[in-house]
Amino acid sequence: MSNDLxxxxxxxxxxxxxxxxxxxxxxxxxxxxxxxxxxxxxxxxAAGMFDVSHMGEFFLDGPQALDFLQLVTSNxxxxxxxxxxxxxCMPNAQxxxxxxxxxxxxxxxxxxLVVNASNIEKDWNHLMHYAPQFxxxxxxxxxxxxxxxxxxxNAIPLLQTLTEIDLAAIKYYSFTVDTLAGIDDxxxxxxxxxGSGGFELYVPNAVAESLWEAIVKAGDSYGLLPAGLGxxxxxxxxxxxxxxxxxxxxxxxxxxxxxxxxxxxxxDFVSCELFQAQKEAGAENKLVGFEMIDxxxxxxxxxxxxxxxxxxxxxxxxxxxxxxxxxxGMGYVPTxxxxxxxxxxxxxRNKPIKAQVVKLPFYKK
Length: 365
Known about the structure:
Alpha-Beta Plaits, 8 helices, 365 residues, 6-stranded antiparallel beta barrel
């Protein structure tokens, strides 16, 4: 492993568990411990715990924090109440996506943004470009926080043994700040990237190992397994959740990516006129989910062709789905081919393999 890679507060814990460590977004991260399929199944059927401390955390304070966020994000932040979370994206001036992110509202003047690890520096520079126009203070505390994701149907009963607050009362996309496993001021967030429920827990690096150990100990009775980035990817893809750098990037618009629901034209924001025109005219291409009809696993950047063999798009994400047993993928195709039931061909080793558009998510509980 390169010495240039960053580590999380738990890297030595993963290494002691003989996790397979890989470079990811500039960090040394666990891709799997005991096997992707085992870890994937644990999250779907019981519980899994991920170290996702590579994610970035920016804090915003000030009288114009809301106005600032309204300009730089596509969703309507004014609808957020304290204790609520919003999924959104930061558009660039060219009609693409700088990043997708979560916006946490602590109060009308205090917010936290959670951004993708690979985009921390880019996102920070983008935000600082607009910040001088507003009475707002930004702090990049990405290096100060650890983030553990405890996901799966047993996440609530497992974590409930470690806190006195009623976790079941914390609704999806809500959060609280309270004591967990004897650690004060844990940000307990009912969010995740798996579609199987659970919580994401933000703590200072100094207490990350204590929290990990407490959850592992409590998890013995609930089927908890440590899970790596491999299972995180198959879990999110089964739910049709976009991955930045694959399914969305600086060149794709939220309208093309099926993210119109987080693109609100009730306010002015970066590129809003461009997106509105695109929505009214109809996007040329759309991101779709598809299942392979013929045998073959689609992979990132495989060409998509029509019946004549003409390349019309590309695969953005693909895998064999552990939960369904099917070979699944997402990709951009012309809008005319985006309807459910439409067929096209994924070029796998220069051979056209038939695929069919299906309604997302791939995995339904």
